[in-house]
């Protein structure tokens, strides 16, 4: 009988801590209006890095380091990737970023998903939505979003890591303005 009680206690305490982790991540997301960070992105083995700013809902601005003046911008509806020599514009809804940049969507999914602890430092949720499968990672100590992995619209495997995260800063009103074509 004592053994059954111990097993039940361990199961219940584990469920409570898992629920507590989810609640802390959700509250952190709710409290975050925007964040800026350094990033490292691996797309099929090609490494790029730079700085990004996300403003919820669905806005992002990224400047890539040492990369032909490459920027990535979403105004919440369109996504533009621009370099000195190229300009690509996509409807945001056709990209995985549409889901990643939607904190209400993330919160709703986190409520329903099982988390997985990775290396005792990251909390992972796997989101399957339509044709997208996205792994979202949060820091186990701060509950901040620290990365994601997905397959992009060209079927490239994309891993993005975030560092030097700062939240709820004053942002320029024009930061997420879609740039004009070259």
Folded structure, characterized:
The structure is a single chain. The chain is α+β, with helices and mostly antiparallel strands. The protein has three helices and eleven strands. The protein has an eleven-stranded antiparallel β-sheet with strand order 6-5-4-3-2-1-11-10-9-8-7, with no helix packed on it. A hairpin with a 4-residue loop joins strand 5 and strand 6. The longest helix has 30 residues. The relative contact order is 0.19. The N terminus is likely disordered.
Structure at a glance:
With 182 residues, the protein is α+β, with helices and mostly antiparallel strands. 24% of the residues lie in helices and 43% in strands. The protein has helices spanning 2-31, 97-100, 103-112; strands at 34-43, 46-55, 59-64, 71-75, 78-82, 87-91, 116-118, 122-129, 132-139, 145-151, 157-167.
Task: Write a concise keyword list for the protein shown above.
alpha+beta; disordered N terminus; 11 strands; 43% strand; 182 residues; single chain; 3 helices
Task: Enumerate how many helices there are, as a single number.
Answer: 3
Q: What Rg is obtained from the alpha carbons, in whole angstroms?
A: 18 Å
The beta-strand count equals 11
The N- to C-terminal Cα distance equals 74 Å
Q: Helical proportion?
A: 10-25%
Q: Please tell me the overall pLDDT.
A: 89
Poorly predicted runs: 1-16
Oligomeric state: single chain
Strand line-up in the sheet with most strands: 6-5-4-3-2-1-11-10-9-8-7
Portion in beta strands: 35-45%
Shape: globular
């Amino acid at each position: 009988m004592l053994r059954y009680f111990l097993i039940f206690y361990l199961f219940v305490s584990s469920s409570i801590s898992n629920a507590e982790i989810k609640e802390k991540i959700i509250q952190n997301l709710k409290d975050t209006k925007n964040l800026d960070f350094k990033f490292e992105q691996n797309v099929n083995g090609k490494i790029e890095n730079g700085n990004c700013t996300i403003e919820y809902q669905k806005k992002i601005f990224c400047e890539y380091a040492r990369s032909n003046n490459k920027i990535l911008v979403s105004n919440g509806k369109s996504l533009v990737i621009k370099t000195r020599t190229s300009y690509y514009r996509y409807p945001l809804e056709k990209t995985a970023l549409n889901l990643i940049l939607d904190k209400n969507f993330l919160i709703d999914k986190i409520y329903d998903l099982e988390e997985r602890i990775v290396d005792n430092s990251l909390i992972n949720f796997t989101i399957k939505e339509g044709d997208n499968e996205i792994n979202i990672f949060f820091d186990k100590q701060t509950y901040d979003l620290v990365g994601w992995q997905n397959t992009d619209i060209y079927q490239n495997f994309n891993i993005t890591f975030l560092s030097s995260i700062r939240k709820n800063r004053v942002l320029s009103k024009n930061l997420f303005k879609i740039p004009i074509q070259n």
